[in-house]
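Methods — Computational structure assignment.
A single polypeptide chain was analysed. Its primary sequence is given first, followed by the predicted tertiary structure written as structure tokens.
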Amino acid sequence: MWNRNLWEGASAGMFESRLVSSSIETTSERLKSHMAHPTGNRSILLLGINAKFIHASFGLRYLQANLGGLKSECVLLECDINQRAIDIVEKALETKPCLIGIGVYIWNAPLVRSVVHLLKKVSPQTIVVLGGPEVSFEIEKQDWLKKADHIITGEGDLAFRRLCETRLGLVASDSNPPWLIHGGLPELSQVAFPYEHYLEEDLRHRVIYVEASRGCPFTCEFCLSSLDAPVRGFDTDDFLAQMQGLLDRGLRHFKFVDRTFNLNIRTSSAILDFFITHLDKGLFLHFEMIPDRLPEPLKQRLTKFPPGCVQLEIGVQTLNPKISDLISRKLQVDKLCENLSFLRNQTQAHLHVDLIVGLPGESLKSFGEGFNQLLGQKPHEIQIGILKRLRGTPIIRHDQAFQMVYDSEAPYEVLATSDVSFSELQRMKRFARYWDLVANSGRFKRTMQSLCHDQPNPFEAFMNFSDWLYAASGQRHGIALTKLVKLVFNYLTDSPLSQPHGTTAQDLWSDYQESGKSDMPICLRPYLLKTHPTKTAFSNQEVTEKTIKGRSKTPGKANQRQLRHVGP
């Protein structure tokens, strides 16, 4: 399934094809007569180029699941963006495929360009089919796409199979399929589930994506999901049967990619009820939710999940009503805050809340005010993203009025606006990175009080720390935890904050231990060894009891980053 994300689905093409009704064996026999390579090789290769190895390509597994009789002639090859194009091409051609399908996304587009260029140089007879959000919009602006034999836009679960059947000669056709195949919206009852195509190794070691619905009813101008109307759902009973199958195979971490999990309350309730009956298995569930819709049935169910079991990703993006209206985003600030307060105080769910920097018309001052307001709701994590001009999104209508300047290379981040300068956006990129390292990581819970929460203006306080940290380290990435502890200690104890050395060291040491570490950082030893000669602020047993308090119902592979945030 190809569309806006690695998890999204596909649809039938515009061309007509006569489907062949045959067994897998008959299909294989027909394929052999059309294959220009020895028996034993596969005629179709699905090539996934993921951001990281841990991510399993959801979209390509949908394509594989919906190949019908061609499934036996398909192999899935997954690589990642850290590999060289020439190595990927060499591996892809090992099975001498007749046809290669590749998903193109914001994170892999530059590498896919190189891969396609090499493929057509060394194996020009191989049919290359591209799909995904990066090739579904602004096609005329991307000359490199002409190297591909076919482009499938939008959802391609069924379109890809029809294309394969035609190009491999399995169906009668008076003409070749068009270069550009426009996807539609297939009936989800006709789309085969992909979950059997997750291997046992995938279930043990990788992020496993699932979806009960596709589409989004909202119109946020920065998001491709705003183009996905209407929302369509899989049959709930059929979907839950698939989830039971994954549970039976040992899966415990489920990442739902539904854009609005809490839109259909009946379906959401049924899914939560299903997992509530399996809490003894040590689950970790991730859902994306809209912030202003939390009716009583969902509230009641969410209170039943223990710590470390549920993560809710909640898109706030901005708390400025004028900016929200400008980008066609629904915003009810009072309802949003009410729901966040309930989730934070009445449930054990881990709250991961999103904000965007660089929206049209929003200044850094406005963003900071929204940040402080959101921080007051005490979410466990605030994910700060830089606005991206995704292909096809209507955010471009503001380019002239707000002097929006974007990077022309992926991920197409905004570089400057009429309200936020280039240098300010660079500062915010560092702010976002350091906030993730210090606050979102859960490794500095006590220390964050002095660093940020107890300050009159938390946003300004952390911005000052961010500027200092970059000046002191010159790094955004690759900062070891012990080095970060030292940097935080130096910042807090030097002017203008001048926090007491002993208290600061104790807070950092307690945070350090609760994050699972036991080697006292060298910078803290002069202030703690006199009172803690054994190099521990409290015994390992006390650390263990404090760390797992309230978590006994979530054994197994609970998400450790989320678990660090358990507690007040």
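Note: The CA atoms of residues 4 and 133 lie 4 Å apart.
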